Amino acid sequence: MRPRTTARRLVRVAGLALAFSGLLTAAACSGDDGGSKSSPSKTEAAAPSASEPAAAATSASPSPSVPPPSLPPAAAAGGLCASVTFTEVRQALGLTFQIAAASGKSGSARTCVLTPLEAALPDLTFVATPLGDDEVSAEDYEKDFVPDKTSEIDGLGRAGYQQLIAATGSAGPVARIGWLGDKNVYTLSLATEQGTGSTEAKAYLPKLQALAPKVIPT
């Protein structure tokens, strides 16, 4: 009877030992999993945040734009330009001029030229030539001052004309009017850009007549 009892005890002890060994193995495995989940890898910790580039782009401020230079009015050129304004010219002709240049002195022929800021054409040229002490009649004016191939206009000075000069290789046609004042003879000419048609240039003639009284010196 004792040998059987001893054998049973040995089997029971062996079974308990195996069970205890299995518990230790399970505990060790669960501890490894917990450690791997709680501690992030070095690669993940070093990766940059996606919000950092956006924040950098937001913080960058655009460079300030340089304001355009302030341009003086036409009257600032003095001389014959003293009675000219860019606004009245634009309203009459539909063209924008930004530069004015005057030449000549009182008692001699005086000129005022208007041009755009960044182009040579179109340009508007206003010329006043004094009559001096001479008495110039309408007949004298037509004989001495009116060029060929012109047509007469009314309502401007004591006598007047209009003319369309043909285009050249570097410019379009020139629309010109002239008139006889009390102390001066005047011409007002618009040189158009290259490629401007004669019909388009001719349409400026009545516009020049409407502008003329506004540019005569007072």
List keywords for this structure.
seven-stranded antiparallel β-sheet; globular; disordered N terminus
What does this structure look like?
The structure is a single chain. This protein has helices at 2-38, 42-46, 51-59, 86-93, 138-144, 198-202, 204-215; strands at 99-103, 110-115, 123-130, 151-152, 160-165, 174-180, 184-191. The protein is α+β, with helices and mostly antiparallel strands and 218 residues long. It has a seven-stranded antiparallel sheet. A hairpin with a 7-residue loop joins strand 4 (151-152) and strand 5. Helix 4 runs antiparallel to helix 7. The protein is globular. The relative contact order is 0.10. Residues 1-64 have low confidence and may be disordered.
Give the arrangement of secondary structure elements.
Elements: H1 2-38, H2 42-46, H3 51-59, H4 86-93, E1 99-103, E2 110-115, E3 123-130, H5 138-144, E4 151-152, E5 160-165, E6 174-180, E7 184-191, H6 198-202, H7 204-215
Antiparallel strand pairs: 1-2, 2-3, 3-7, 4-5, 5-6, 6-7
Give a brief outline of the structure.
With 218 residues, the protein is of the alpha+beta class.
Average residue-wise pLDDT: 79
In helices, the fraction of residues equals 25-40%
Low-confidence stretches: 1-64
Biggest sheet, in brief? Answer: 7 strands, antiparallel
Oligomeric assembly: single chain
Total number of strands: 7
Whole-angstrom Rg = 48 Å
Give the structural class. alpha+beta
Spatial strand arrangement across the major sheet: 1-2-3-7-6-5-4
The end-to-end span amounts to 150 Å
Order of helices and strands: HHHHEEEHEEEEHH
- Give the count of helical stretches: 7
Q: In percent terms, what proportion of residues is strand?
A: 15-25%
**Coarse shape:** globular
